[in-house]
Specification:
Helices cover about 70% and strands about 0% of the residues. It is mostly helical.
Length: about 80
Amino acid sequence: MENKFSNQNELYLKVLPALKTKKNEMKREGFKMVKEIDLWEYNKEYNWKRAKGLTLASIVNDILNTDSKLYQEYIIKKYEESE
């Protein structure tokens, strides 16, 4: 990774502006129950779990360019499993 982060929380805080941007985009699309942490967890599980050589740019790219419908399906499934 181009920048070194001592832990995931530090990285999360660094990419929080991208997470907020995607959350706001999804809210404009009508999906109101999205949270930044949901977007983070989706990417950790589906985009970054087995990735090697991640850069900050690729992480931000994944956050912003993952289809909102994929995020929505993940969040709805997560919500349904918690009931």
